[in-house]
Specification:
Keywords: ATP-binding, Kinase, Nucleotide-binding, Serine/threonine-protein kinase, Transferase. It catalyses: L-threonyl-[protein] + ATP = O-phospho-L-threonyl-[protein] + ADP + H(+); L-seryl-[protein] + ATP = O-phospho-L-seryl-[protein] + ADP + H(+). Belongs to the protein kinase superfamily. This protein is 28% helix and 17% strand. It is α+β, with helices and mostly antiparallel strands. Strand 1 and strand 2 form a beta hairpin.
Amino acid sequence: MERYEIVKDIGSGNFGVARLVRDKSTRELFAVKFIDRGNKIDENVQREIMNHRSLKHPNIVQFKEVLVTPTHLAIVMEYAAGGELYERIGKAGRFSENEARFFFQQLISGVSYCHKMQICHRDLKLENTLLDGSAAPRVKICDFGYSKSLLSSLPKSTVGTPAYIAPEVLSKQQYDGKIADVWSCGVTLYVMIVGAYPFEDPKDPLNFRKTIRRILTVRYSLPDSVRVSVECRHLLSRIFVANPLKRITIPEIKHHRWFVKNLPVEMKEGGSWESNDVNTPSQSTEEVQSIIQEARKPLKVPTVSRHCIGSSMAIDDADIGGT
């Protein structure tokens, strides 16, 4: 980390802390996720690094490198100065349909690229959707801790964030991670337009079991107070389908009449964002794996524990009992 200077803390979570740093020679800003050495460097961390480092797309936070310090594993990546999409909605209450479409088109563009690269994200949500600092904000998907490469096998672990999780992910059986990602994108679209989660009971929003029951029965509605076009309602009805085999796919979303309205040229078929570029980090796969193994060794100096928060999880069987 000698070539970087720390500017400030920019976030925290189950992983540890994220800091804004500046490259001393280029003066370029980066975000660095610091994870305590030792047991926290688990398979999720390794999967995050190995999957994320292979991706290169305008709507995905760019991976730069991974480093090890005496106390932490440090993941260096592009800095998204605009913060979380979640925060933007929190300030606005909800978006107009046109604004929601602007962000949703970019989200789908990034997710489509991930799927073409045979990676499903499995924790798509507003908090993992960042924005750059430009006047017309560009969506940047981040946090690949629950992502899975589909080159080996289909996923079957129940992971994700409850409000966004697809019904089939709760089944404890193998499922199509790409189709499960579609459901999470639908939740994101609904929240942007309505300003609330589709499957939470408005009278009891913190009741996790009720949320799960409503997901499994696909029980949602659009408030009368929110004007939503027929085309948008149709798209949501095609996303929120319990049977994943009957749910709309990402390629189908990209041709849906609501989605293609005002679609930027670069996102159209054959446009500059339709490429299958592979990221080529300066570090080799072997070097990265060696750094990860080194970071799994215990801390070299004592550290002070810090209070962290986070909401993504692997969901235990007990959590879905009674549904």
